[in-house]
Amino acid sequence: MSAGDGSAGDGSAADGSAGDGSAGGARHTPAAVAEDFHRLYGAAPEGVWAAPGRVNLIGEYTDFNDGFVMPLALPHTAVAAVSRRTDGRLRVHSADTDQGVVQLDAGTLRPLTGTGWAAYPAGVVWALREAGHPVTGADIHLASTVPTGAGLSSSAALEVVTALALADLYGLGLTARELALAGQRAENAFVGVPCGVMDQMASACCTEGHALHLDTRDLSTRQVPFDLDAHGLALLVVDTRVKHALGDGAYANRRAGCEAGARALGVRTLREIEYAQLPDALRRLGDETIRAQVRHVVSDNHRVERTIALLDAGDVRAVGPVLTEGHASLRDDLRVSCPELDLVVSAANAAGALGARMTGGGFGGSAIVLTEATDADTVTKAITEAFATAGHTAPRVFPARPSAGARRVV
What we know:
Blueprint: H1 30-41, E1 47-58, E2 68-84, E3 89-94, E4 102-105, H2 119-130, E5 138-144, H3 154-169, H4 176-191, H5 198-205, E6 210-215, E7 220-225, E8 233-239, H6 250-265, H7 278-283, H8 288-312, H9 319-334, H10 339-350, E9 355-359, E10 366-372, H11 376-390, E11 396-399, E12 407-408
Parallel strand pairs: 3-5
Antiparallel strand pairs: 1-2, 1-12, 2-5, 2-6, 3-4, 6-7, 8-10, 8-11, 9-10
Helix pairs in contact: 2-3, 2-4, 3-4, 3-5, 4-5, 6-8, 8-9, 10-11
């Protein structure tokens, strides 16, 4: 769950370009990003890299509880043109803001000192240097088609693409897992958002045509085939265009509640509570809010396991009701939904979708809808009409294709 997650689209996984409805367009292709880098800094970049946003199929608020998650990478990417510097200067620029080049000193970066959007790439430089890596500065130009404010991990994409570029340029030899951890440290310690590691691991590690089963306790992964086309299905992302800001304390509050529940149950994290043990665990908790949060986390871990079993059995359609069940848990137990997200789920299911749920940190952002491919237009129309009837801003709806993780593109 990222803090700085606006518009949605269907960008190309190969080149980071924007498609239907997305921000950016032609200036967000690798070639254009490299050209803009040259215009900004007076020389060609040493390379161009891309890292995707993600949407989470199932397993929400479980990652900081050492639990299971199952994200997939989106075609939408953050693209970075980067060159090394040897003078300790860090210059960063984004095509997606009106701000000019932000100039910093790599050696004097300090956590929680602001700098707006630039805190994400700056935080990665800080995290790498704190880990002892010889990053002596950089010129960076970024452009992203990952929707911001939509719960699709635009901040993790910025972090991972920066980490990958610097690791390549400085010959750091970091694994995808280590890149993800550097990005998470940047967001936790430098930016100040206590996110789990799912977003960064998804951006760094996902593969095309698969969902990523991530065990956040030991960071072991498994690529689970998720071939929607082969089954005649579509996974829609519905960006409600309701902005959320996880730095406002709501996310941290849920995390603190889960940690309090674990302490009350005498375990290190809620991962240690098996689903079969849940009724007994709930009887031992006196605080109703903490009880509800524990119930969500343990049951959502179980929903991830159920989803994997269904996909392994080839019963992809049966995942739909699991999604809807997960939404009810997020809405009622964790209380992180909102009227617009609830409306997506109810309207989609009423129109014949197989299932739907909010995804990401909540309080706005996006929902996902699993539907027959032949029903996708009907479901999209039903959601859009429901929003119009309710007086909400029209949502953006686009298909999610399981796409590739971070990579060098030029």
